[in-house]
Amino acid sequence: MAESGGGGGGCCPPMDLMRSEPMQLLQLIVPMESAHLTVSYLGDLGLVQFKDLNSEKSPFQRTYAAQIKRCGEMARKIRFFKDQMSKAGVVPKEMLEKENDIDLDDVEVRLGELEAELVEINANNDKLQRSYNELMEYKLVLQKAGEFFSSAHRSATAQQSEPESPRGGEDLLESPLLQEEKSIDSSKQVKLGFLTGLVPREKSMVFERILFRATRGNIFTRQSVIDEAVIDPNSGEKAEKNVFIVFYSGERAKSKILKICEAFGANRYPFSEDLGKQAQMITEVSGRLTELKTTIDAGLGHRDMLLHTIGDKFELWNLKVRKEKAIYHTLNMLSLDVTKKCLVAEGWSPVFASNEIQDALKRAAVDSNSQVGSIFQVLRTKELPPTYFRTNKFTSAIQEIVDAYGVAKYQEANPGVFTIVTFPFLFAVMFGDWGHGICLLLATMYLIVREKKLASQKLGDIMEMAFGGRYVIMMMSLFSIYTGLIYNEFFSIPYPLFAPSAYDCRDVACSEATTIGLIKVRDTYPFGLDPVWHGTRSELPFLNSLKMKMSILLGVSQMNLGIIMSYFNAIFFKSSVNIWFQFVPQMIFLNSLFGYLSVLIIIKWCTGSQADLYHVMIYMFLSPTDELGENELFPHQKTVQRHQGQAYAPLDETDESLHVETNGGSHGHEEFEFSEIFVHQLIHTIEFVLGAVSNTASYLRLWALSLAHSELSSVFYEKVLLLAWGYNNILILIVGIIVFVFATVGVLLVMETLSAFLHALRLHWVEFQNKFYEGDGYKFAPFTFILTGNEDE
Q: Looking at the record, which segments are called Disordered (predicted)?
């Protein structure tokens, strides 16, 4: 175990997950002329976390506020282009050119020109499209209203040409109401006006009713339904409309109708009673529609060409603008020196990166033709450095699980080293079935094999989480196969994979599945559980006892590991007080009770004793002087237990209280508050004493979840698959197989996986990490360009 990693210098020191990388506080003094390039090179390096030296200033008071505003304006134009390309279905091309080959000023000019051109094209297109939609509505009005006038004209002509004859109740709707009134004085004739247009169909009935009431019935209205939806010129959206024609008398009625049309969003269009003019107008409108369609298509073609031109450079411009904005944000964190010719930066970096940072500073000075180089110096500080673990794609997911509980304090022992193995193993203890493990492994291998392609795609939230933890799931599936082989379960079915069963029937009567009639005829089954236990009446009591004791052994082992890690922390931080007055009492306390119980379990397994461990543990405290009788597992057990029962509480109390006093004296440089330290250690003592019992009991979830998984799998197999098989009906069998597959995938491979994952997570966060892990640090967040291209504003 490496107590401290890295060392100074070197490109790639050995990765050390046990302790975070040694960090240093840097001070960089950079000339103004090379500041931009220096920050750019350090962003490419991604190993410096800058401190904000201008925290008292508002964003508008900082040195580079104008440049950030300029970059923000360019970013707005790029978002506008992205939105336009998305609507047009244009996909930006991948970036082939280096961003260093372009100048920000050229990008700004080019973006301005393209935006102006695109805005002008869009405005012209909107005007043309509006005119086109208006003409389309006008054409429909001409057709529908023309049909109404033609019908009325034909009806009137027919009435005049017909001889007079009584028609009784067969009068047409268009015929006059007073047939007997033959001659009308021409001076009394009233000239009717009319308005035509389109009204939304859902408003048409209300529209007609309001017109009738507003004019007191002094109108005549006709409506005609348009079969296809039309595009409204005002909103640009498709809508179902009716063509209307309203006949009225008088200017007052006309003004009322116009206001009602405006209120209902009805578009009005001029119309002539003359049939000849109507035909002429339809011809003119059709011609103009054809011209507009041609013009609009040409404009859209030009717009698509412009968007493709933008798409060719979009990723390059986007990355350039994002980088420049990030650089200026970082430059705003630097302070001006007294001469205002240099910028002063402070920040954290790993010790191993010193040479790389100095090389970047030299390159920036040369490339910017600066006459003065940058100054690099390490500052001494008592400030707590950030925590930085260098991980790869295999260890990063496990480290994220640990960091979700709390980021490790600087150079504190990292639980992630052990979690890589213990997390998937404890999951597998609860999920042990090598059939289900193989299913998980196949799903994970698909993600791993196609990881390069999937990494570049946008996945859903759940799929993104599964893909990020693909290597953790792979380890979980491998351990599940291993524990499944130990439990001898393949979708709840046992298989004699490694040897025949060690037991056989004594006679035919033992076929009723009970171990009473079984005798041992071969050597013990070499690996895992003997398949003969499956289906017997003693299977459940036997497995319950086995898994419960196994859970206690695993829990005590992991808690002991946690306490041992606190010892290594104390050694690393040179705190002998924590060794003698925290580590030692905790080890004695835990192992005097549960360590002793674990030893008794192992002795009972090895000797085959019938001792009642419940009785042993309870009466060790209640009656330590009583004889053990058949519960005695080893010689002098009574003497050992008597000393434990009598000296247990005073031992822990004394040691922990000593910790209180000595711990205060070990930090002479800090202000000593006896009452505060006393209360803190008292709470710590109570928490550990109670936690030792509750944490051990918490590990029994391994037994409970394992039993639940096994029983659920057995129920699905016996009550679904075997039951369907027993009907000897192919249709029922197919239905049974489908139900079995969906139940296995939905319940056992999804819900049970999530349940076991969460329980394993709790065991690590609470039962394991609270023994040594403080987790009150903060993560190293260097200034880097790696994720700049993928981040959204």
A: 153-172
713/744 Cα distance (integer angstroms): 8
With bands split at pLDDT 50, 70 and 90, how would you rate the model's confidence at 100? Answer: low
Q: Pick one of 3.40.50.360, 3.30.70.2520, 3.30.70.1150, 3.30.360.10 as the CATH number of 126-153+191-291.
A: 3.30.70.2520
Do 723 and 578 touch, CB atoms closer than 8 A? Answer: no
Residue 559: what residue type?
M
What the block records as the tokens of 719 is 């009550």
State whether CATH 3.40.50.300 applies to domain 18-53+334-386.
no
Residue among 592, 570, 593 nearest 581 (CA): 570
Cβ atoms of 351 and 23 within 8 Å: the answer is yes
Is the fold of 18-53+334-386 the same as that of 126-153+191-291?
A: yes
Length of the chain: 793
Q: What is the pLDDT of residues 521-538, one digit of tens each?
A: 888 899 999 998 887 788
Q: What is the band of 625 on the pLDDT scale with cuts at 50, 70, 90?
A: confident
Q: What phi-psi label fits residue 605: left (phi over 0), alpha (psi between -120 and 50 degrees) or beta?
A: alpha
| Domain positions in the chain | 18-53+334-386, 126-153+191-291, 419-645+679-771
Angle between helices 416-431 and 470-487 (to 10 degrees): 50
Instruction: Give the Å distances, CA to CA, from 129 to 80, 85, 181.
Output: 21, 19, 52
Consecutive H or E run containing 280: helix 275-331
**pLDDT by residue (tens digit) across 448-467?**
999 999 888 888 888 999 99
Q: What angle do CA 647, 648, 653 make, to 5 degrees?
A: 100
Tell me the pLDDT tens digit for each residue of 111-141.
999 999 999 999 999 999 999 999 998 988 8
CA 51 vs CA 26, 314, 319, 645: distances in Å:
10, 32, 24, 57
